[in-house]
């Protein structure tokens, strides 16, 4: 599972590669403790990747909120100006 994030023109563009889960052969020889260590390491890596993806989504959400606030302000200013010009006729 890998995800590369790059910035292009101020936008966050994600290049998601195909997600693959590493599969373990059912004939792995080892003790259950070894399997627990492998599972814990695998879960730790997945949590780190999910945390990274969550941080990217939170950053995108903050940027979107800023853009929306600017657009709403511009729209309200436009309608106030048009209303004022219309009343002055």
What features would you describe in this structure?
With 89 residues, the chain is α+β, with helices and mostly antiparallel strands. Strands 1-2 form a two-stranded antiparallel ribbon. Strand 1 and strand 2 form a beta hairpin. This is Mitochondrial fission factor. It comes from Junco hyemalis. Plays a role in mitochondrial and peroxisomal fission. Promotes the recruitment and association of the fission mediator dynamin-related protein 1 (DNM1L) to the mitochondrial surface.
Can I get a quick summary?
The chain is of the alpha+beta class and about 90 residues long.
Chain-wise SSE layout:
Blueprint: E1 3-8, E2 11-16, H1 32-87
Antiparallel strand pairs: 1-2
Average pLDDT score: 77
- Give the fraction of residues assigned to helices: 55-70%
Q: How far is it from the N-terminal to the C-terminal residue, by CA?
A: 63 Å
Instruction: Quote the beta fraction.
Output: 5-15%
CA radius of gyration: 25 Å
Q: Count up the helices.
A: 1
Low-confidence stretches: 1-27
- Pattern of helices and strands: EEH
**What oligomeric arrangement do these chains adopt?**
single chain
Number of strands: 2
Shape: rod-shaped
Structural class: alpha+beta
- Give the neighbour order of strands across the main sheet: 1-2
**Largest beta-sheet characterization:** 2 strands, antiparallel
Family: Belongs to the Tango11 family.
Organism: Junco hyemalis (Dark-eyed junco)
InterPro entries: Mff-like_dom, Mff/Tango-11
Transmembrane segments: 69-87
Summarize this structure as a short list of keywords or feature phrases:
89 residues, alpha+beta, two-stranded antiparallel ribbon, 1 helix, 2 strands, 13% strand, rod-shaped, disordered N terminus
């Amino acid at each position: 599972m890998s995800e590369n994030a790059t910035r292009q023109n101020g936008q966050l563009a994600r290049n998601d590669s195909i997600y693959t889960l590493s599969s373990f052969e059912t004939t792995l020889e080892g003790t259950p403790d070894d399997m627990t260590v492998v599972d814990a390491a695998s879960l730790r890596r997945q949590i780190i990747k999910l945390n990274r993806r969550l941080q990217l989504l939170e950053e995108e959400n903050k940027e979107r909120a800023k853009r929306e606030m600017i657009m709403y302000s511009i729209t309200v200013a436009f309608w106030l100006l048009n209303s004022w010009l219309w009343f002055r006729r």
